[in-house]
């Protein structure tokens, strides 16, 4: 069953049931009000009759009875007076009031505390019951007065009939209202579904408009659009990465093919073949290095390396890195300075942290001219470990900042040096896999400072 139809039935059912409950409450409220008003009228009439009896006796009561009977009719109202000896002293025509209790039983049933009683009784041959009041009016005499409830009963019956007639109308209105509300409630979901269908057909620019109401549908739409933006960004990145990989693979493969073709077509000696083999091995190593770096980046981004994380003394990694790259710096007449404190620990992967710091140091030395300097620093700040790699090299233009951490991206200043453009991408992936990030401050011909911040490990 479609969701819209289910919601319509729910709305219609709730609306109809609510209307029935409201009618029942309203009906019984009206009935209670009518009953209360009838009882008040009877009590008021009995009090007036009691005053007339005290002032004029039975003759005055008889005159009043005759006037009321003349205006209302003997089938609508009756009166009778019962004396202390349980005999009827005065009464109107009771022929229409079959089933009234005898006079002696009326006296026996009178409550002594209240001095009056109110009852609803059914009269043989009449559709509607009657409301009867019995009360003492002085000198041990009892007056009994009955009034037919035909008028109020007819009103309540008409009220019931009107409601029965309007129930189908209420159900139809409830269904229409429920259908409208269901369609309105599901509008956002239909738009999301339509967008998803368009996207499966290749329209990645498709978005669902937000209503601005801030309800659950709007949250769903916002989340869906955010997901689409993310998917589109990932697809664009994948396409760019695929293009870059194809480009970077094509160059070494072309070089290997060229070396092999040249060696085969010429009258090559054994030394020529050895030279060709050596160059081919170097190109293969370059390709393997690029592929392994790509795998390391993917491994870091997918969270796989978290399985190998342990408590690591990052200061030891800094010192080992300085010792490893010191000969390379000396060959280029570059001053390499390390500033680190002892026993600063993080929770991470030793191999990946070594790779990250090694990549940054290698880049810093590679792009720093002779006579320059490279500084590797380590310190704590706000429960985080901060690693700085500063150099006095060629620097990076500010326009390149948004792209330098993208895979295969190489600045103009770096194209003169060998490399794949994956070093900073790997460093960023490793930093983020450790719960941190990497940032850069640089200026052309003034040098660069790369800053890594990762959480400090505490024993608690």
Model description:
This protein is an alpha+beta fold and 460 residues long. The protein is rod-shaped, with a radius of gyration of 50 Å. The chain has 9 helices and 12 strands. The chain folds into 3 domains: 3-155, PAS domain (Beta-Lactamase), CATH 3.30.450; 216-299, Helix Hairpins (Orthogonal Bundle); 306-455, Histidine kinase-like ATPase, C-terminal domain (Heat Shock Protein 90), CATH 3.30.565.10. The strands form 3 sheets. It has a 5-stranded antiparallel beta sheet with strand order 2-1-5-4-3. Strands 7-9-10-12-11 form a 5-stranded mixed beta sheet, covered by helices on one side.
Short description:
By secondary structure, the chain is α+β, with helices and mostly antiparallel strands. The chain has nine helices and twelve strands. The protein folds into three domains: 3-155, Beta-Lactamase (2-Layer Sandwich); 216-299, Signal transduction histidine kinase, dimerisation/phosphotransfer (DHp) domain (Helix Hairpins); 306-455, 2-Layer Sandwich (Heat Shock Protein 90).
**What is the makeup of the main sheet?**
5 strands, antiparallel
Number of domains: 3
What is the oligomeric state here?
single chain
Termini gap = 56 Å
The CATH superfamily of the largest domain turns out to be: PAS domain
